[in-house]
Fold this sequence. Notes:
Elements: E1 5-8, H1 12-21, E2 28-33, H2 34-39, H3 45-51, E3 54-58, H4 67-79, E4 87-92, H5 94-106, E5 112-117, H6 120-126, E6 131-136, E7 139-146, E8 151-154, H7 164-181, H8 183-196, H9 207-224, H10 239-251, H11 258-277, H12 282-295, H13 306-314, E9 325-331, E10 334-340, H14 343-356
Parallel strand pairs: 1-8, 2-3, 2-4, 4-5, 5-8
Antiparallel strand pairs: 6-7, 9-10
Amino acid sequence: xxxxxxxxxxxLEAGIIKAVExxxxxxxxxxxxxxxxxxxxxxxxxxxEKYNPERIILPPGEEYKNLDSxxxxxxxxxxxxxxxxxxxxxxxxxxxxxLGGFAAACFKRGINFINAPTTLLAAVDAxxxxxxxxxxxxxxxxxGAFAPxxxxxxxxxPFASLPDSQLASGxxxxxxxxMISSPKDYTAILLESQKNGLNLRLADFxxxxxxxxxxxxxxxxxxxxxxxxxxxxxxxxxHTCGHAFETLLLRRGTPVPHGMxxxxxxxxxxxxxxxxxxxxxxxxxxxxxxxxxHLFPSLPIGCDDTDELISLMAHDKKNSGGKITFIxxxxxxxxxxxxxxxTDDIRAALDIYLDLR
Length: 357
């Protein structure tokens, strides 16, 4: 896999223009949602006026990351004269970059696309790495393809309009990256917690530095293992249980941001790391007290939900041989892939999690 071009720019509009002008195309399309249209389009008004892309606007929310929305995008590109030489810009959060990337990967058997993430979560997670897809049959990202964006624009400018919960959601993925790859940066986050309780909006909070690390480290891992046959699996740390939390709450009509679900999934994974690998239990309490409790409220999950959560984990795409597998940590910076975990241990970990949260 070739290096994914990452354009770092505090000026979102300048970054998009730089990317578009470096790619030949015949038709230009822009996919977004109505929230981004309201909050972010004013930041790129000059680009929109000058280049006049065909705009495709979706309703916001995970519930619209489905086949109906995918069909709408294809119909719009077809009606707009799209060809194999067309270019799609995905300007939005993770739903837009995931769905738009998959739409581009399939339209005319594949067209170029650029991701311009407008949320911290999308910037550090969905926009980089080439995983695209839609939710199907009640399961997240059940249908999709590996299709990397030609370029990714990394700008913190749109983050100012994000509510605190969305900013924290994205930061959970940064925390995950430091836990699997950089003890130094994880320690820096713990020190920030001691200083200011993890106030992510403080002017001197090292958000740009941590974001740059997380995105570049993910790009490095993806380049080495583009199809997730080995090393790339470490990026799923916290996601096995996190996706189960997220899917269960979405089904109940009480959805939570992806990063919030992953943040709680990380706590479960740390508990399982102690149970299965005898990892130092201090890491559990350190993470819970200095990160999770500062940024994320408790999830509306109870003991009666254990069976359904385990059933959802059993459908995880990362499983093999009918066994539920987790990414665990033997220490910060030392992930262990493909760890088979018996359901009895998962039950025990969920019981401990419910006591700790």
